[in-house]
Amino acid sequence: MKLTDISPAIALSPLDGRYHRQTAELTEYMSEPALNRERLHVEVEWMILLANGMGDGPIVGGVTPFTDAEIAYLRAIPEDFGAEGIARMAEHEAVTHHDVKAVEYYIDDQLDKAPETLGPDTQLPHIKQLVHFACTSEDINNLSYALCIKQAVENVWTPAAESIVDHLADKAERFRDKPMLSLTHGQPATPTTLGKELAVYVYRLRRQMRKIAAQEYLGKINGATGTFGAHLAAYPDVDWVAVSREFVTNRMGLTWNPLTTQIESHDWQAELYSTISHVNRILHNLCVDVWMYISRGVFAQVPVKGATGSSTMPHKVNPIRFENAEANFEISCSLLETLAATLVESRWQRDLTDSTTQRNVGVGLGYSLLALNNLLGGLNSIHPNDAVIERELDENWEVLGEPIQTAMRAAALEGREGMDKPYEKVKELMRGHSISKDDVENFIATLDFDEETAKRLSSLTPSTYTGIADRLVDFD
After folding, report:
1. In 3D, which of 218, 87, 217 has the Cα closest to residue 152?
2. Within a 13 Å sphere around the CA of 109, how many CA atoms are in the beta-carbon half?
3. Side-chain half-sphere CA neighbours of 338 within 13 A
4. Active site residue 185
5. Are 106 and 131 in contact (CB under 8 A)?
6. N or C: which end of the chain has fewer CB within 10 A?
């Protein structure tokens, strides 16, 4: 049997197949029907503005202001757009081979049906020329995409990303005092605290999340090449710039772009996708770090009852959530960065490359959302392995070479004898050797430190040599 013969159709993308449950929320905003619903919304609101004006009567002639009932009927067109509407829209597009024209004809259908709800006196069946008035398809599309993307980012992606940041912030606070061995270049280095290391990620992420929260979503409605040519040809006395600004800003809730070609220039999209991709890469870094902490034993995983870690090695608990998150962040970045690079270019006043490209915005967000879900699940399944953390610290007394040689430098500056070449003396003692607590204390005793400094250095251990790491958590 051919899989293509099975109904309903089998999903090609894993986002709509294997991972559908984890990414389904985006369907509400980033699917083709969601885009068509927003197109209907934009078209209907444009009709209402043209007929009812901005407080001083209709903008165009030949119509009377819509009644409250007529406005409610028009707004119900996108609100009630469901399975039946999707099928009818598809029928129109099969004939038009043009998605926005299909939207226009769909609205015409609903205007014809208006008397069934509003009675025979309604004007709606007779004002079809108001649908898509003076608009090019991109007037509708750019606003619809902006609304879809804005809602998807604000209602789905941002809450998922913030849940990661909140989780990390909670762990940073909880483990602010838990010392751990640092590794720089993969080698034992100045100890830190687990809380401070997690707070580093919180700080990095919150900077990017603030950019996303402040992101502008631009829109335009100004005709075929952005000149309001058709608008003025029909109604030369109307202040179309003011009408356009009112519609985009107050009716659509977007930022008005006054200067465009046929298309809105998509710079805001490039900015947004670059920032989300940056968040992805920070979190990819976190996944790699946590994976290595697990491999090192610093983090222990909580086994999931009934789950298989390896098909042949029963003892294993593989860090698969972090690995899956890594992979999906990479896919998301590749898509979003391609979108950011390509959408800002258009040949002269318009080419169609952005049309097919923008249909993949939801895919880029979908892989990021999938990665966020995997990462949060992974973070919920790990906890610090105190025994390993303490053993690592106790086995690496050589990390105290740094404070000792730095204190020797300070003593030399103050004129104390025997403090020359501090770095070299400490290196000779500690590099390539296994150092114990006694070795450190004996070395300090051979040096002419003042009593207070000698006492302070002798009291240091790898576990206490963490500087102000615990206080730095407050800067996250």
Report:
1. 217
2. 15
3. 17
4. yes
5. no
6. N
DSSP assignment letter at 8: S
**Half-sphere CA count of 134, side-chain side, radius 13 A:** 23
Active site residue 266: no
- Looking at the fold, whether 401 and 374 belong to one and the same domain comes out as no
Note whether 244 and 362 are same-domain residues. Answer: yes
Contact 177, 470 (CB under 8 A): yes
Q: Is residue 428 part of a domain?
A: yes
What's the CA angle centered on 439, arms 405 and 197, to 5 degrees?
Answer: 60
Neighbouring CB atoms inside 10 A of 237's CB total 6
Report helix, strand or coil for 29: helix
Q: Are 156 and 212 in contact (CB under 8 A)?
A: no
pLDDT tens for each residue of 191-224: 999 999 999 999 999 999 999 999 999 999 999 9
Q: Which residue has the tokens 């200067």?
A: 259
Give the chain's domain count: 3
- Strand-pair category, 218-219 with 255-256: parallel
pLDDT one-digit tens code per residue, 377-408: 999 999 999 999 999 999 999 999 999 999 99
- Cβ atoms of 360 and 339 within 8 Å: the answer is yes
Are residues 141 and 115 both part of a single domain? no
Place of tokens 């013969």: 5
Q: Which of 7, 185, 311, 459 is catalytic?
A: 185
CB distance 463 to 188 below 8 Å? no
Maximum CA extent, the chain = 106
d(CA 120, CA 114): 8
Contact indicator for 221, 244 with CB cutoff of 8 Å:
yes
Q: How far apart are CA 145 and CA 138, in angstroms?
A: 10
Tens of pLDDT, residues 263-315: 999 999 999 999 999 999 999 999 999 999 999 999 999 865 555 555 454 55
Are 457 and 426 in a shared domain?
yes
The structure tokens listed for 455 are 């006492």
- Give me the catalytic one of 13, 310, 434, 436: 310
Instruction: Report yes or no on 364 lying in a domain.
Output: yes
How many C-beta neighbours within 10 Å does residue 43 have? 27
Q: Are 271 and 218 in contact (CB under 8 A)?
A: no
Residue 247, both tokens = 């519609």
Q: Looking at 130, 163, 196, which one is the last position of a domain?
A: 130
| Residue 81 domain boundaries | 27-130
Sequence length of the chain is 476
Cβ count within 10 A of residue 345: 12
Q: Indicate the pTM of the whole model.
A: 0.94
In which residue are the tokens 């970045």 written? Answer: 333
User: What is the residue whose two structure tokens read 């259908």?
Assistant: 109
Is 411:198 a contact under the CB 8 Å cutoff? Answer: no
